[in-house]
Every structure is written in C-alpha cells, then in structure tokens.
Amino acid sequence: MQEQLKQLKNEAIEKINVTDSLDQLQEIQVEYIGRKGSITTVLRGMGKLSAEERPIVGQLANEVREAIQNELSTKKEHLEKIELDKKLAEETIDVTLPGRKVTVGHPHILTSVIEEIEDLFIGLGYEIKEGPEVETDYYNFEALNLPKGHPAREMQDSFYITNELLLRTHTSPVQARTMRALDNEPIRMICPGKVYRRDSDDATHSHQFTQIEGLYVDKNVRMSDLKGTLDVFAKKMFGEDREIRLRPSFFPFTEPSAEMDISCKTCGGKGCSVCKHSGWIEILGSGMIHPRVLEMAGYDPEVYSGFAFGMGPDRIAMLKYGIDDIRRFYANDVRFLKQFDEA
User: Fold this and answer.
1) Looking at the predicted structure, is the pLDDT value of residue 226 above 90?
2) What CATH superfamily classification does 109-340 receive?
C-alpha cells in the first residue's frame, strides 16, 4: 500500500507539471485528492493492515496528499499569473490618447435673458423679489384694483384650484405683497417668475410663460422717471440706437397707463414686415401706480407715488435673437438651445 501511495504521488506530480490549463488542474485535484479520488480509494483498504502498519500508512497518506496539494497550489498560482498577464496585454489602454471631450452645459436662453435683465436693474438700485406661484384671488386681483366681477379679469381668469386660490396670472401679486410688508418704506424692485393663463398655444402665445414686473415707490416719483428708466432698459438690451415711445393704454392698477414700443431694429424705424410696416414694436406695458392700489397697500397716495412696468422675457428674447415661435423655448430641442451657447 505504501508503494501504491508513492506511485500515485509521482503520477499526480507529473501530470501537474505538464498541464497548462486551470481546468485540467482542477480535474487532477479531484482525481487524486478528492473525496472519491485515488488516494481515498487506497485508504479504504487500511482495515486489512495490521495495527503496526496503519499509523505508518496513515502518516504517509497525509504526506502524499499534502505534497500533491502544494504542487497544485504552486501550479495554480503560476497559471493564474500567465492568464492575468495575457489579459492585461490584450486589454492594454493607451493612456496617452486624448480623451472624449466633456460636454459642458449652459443656461437656457430664457434664463440668460432674465439674468441679463436682473443685472441691469440691480445696477439701477433695484432688488429682486419673489413670491408664490399659487396665489390668492385677493393678491392676484383685488389688491391690484381688480375686484370680483371686474371686466378686465376676463382675459386672466385661468387656472383656479379653489374659488380663492389660482395659479398666478402675472407677477404683480409680489408687488402687492412687498408693499404691504414694507409698510410705507420706499421700494425699488423687480419680480421675475413663471405665470399661467388660459391661452391658445400658437407662435406668440403659451399657457405658461415668464414675466418680469418692476415697481418703484417713493415720494415725488414722476412719469418722466418711468420713461427714463425704460429708455435705459431698451438701449442696454437692444442697442444704443434704439428709440422708445409711450402710447396711452389701460391697466386697472396704473393711471395713467402706457404701452412702450421700441424702434424696429430690422428696418431702423422705416417700416418692414417685422414691425408690420409701422417702424415700432410693442414690448411692454407700464404706468403710474393707481392711487387705490397704493392705498390698499397702506401707502398714503397724497404723499407717495410710483410707477410699475411689466414685460415678458420670452418676448424680449424673441426680439433680441430673432426667434419666430415662443414654443421653441419649451420644446427642449437641444439643436435649438445649442445655438445660444455663447448668448
């Protein structure tokens, strides 16, 4: 039996030395030292041995098993290293090659225009104010001289949540809230944000759009202050050669009220299809704050006066960059948006 064990050891080591496969190595392990392997089979005959021979054969069997296991481990480590080196050679990456260019995002064109307008008015001493998009009927209408049943509500009665809550139809409620909160202090502010109105979606209208409204309240504020402010705005946004004109209009929260036009950049004021051959393009609404609006906000209209204006950054962007359809701003077409990387 001892000779048989020594012979199995030599056979196993010889097979281990010549194999070049991890799978074959596993098969050799099972064949010789597995639970049903050759060495185990030999040891099952130990019952036939004398009491003196059993310890000798048992010790030899352990030595043979250990020797085979050591050879297997050494060979496995060697083959694994060869396989790893081969894989590394096949999967080599040339780290000196240039990498893929990382695409850097940029602000949406409307965001850029809004920030440009904000920077302009901050430079004039205005503050940026914000308010809720879900607004009460009182602040959205009544505090702005639009009581229930007023006919001017007709074009703005839109997305109601309850009888007294709705999605704001303009950012003017922020002005009313700010005036009430400041309690007779001078105010110079603009309030940008999203607004919502029931409207047909076409090239120039959308049920959701952005708006920026401005407010200036103090003692001795005059219409000439409003015109001077809007003139600075027009020249900074559209070029120093732009002219403005104010046309009489009507807004419930201002009196007198005026629409502001700028001279057409395309034709230089001579008349073309862009300005409908008038030489002028309407751009925003404005006016002196109605005394009743001041009074409802807690200001004495005999002491304080002010002006307000409202514009749509969507329309400003369309005019500034020659965009023909307001819906392009909200379609998320990357091809359209990438045109304004440097805007």
Assistant:
1) yes
2) Bira Bifunctional Protein; Domain 2 (3.30.930.10)
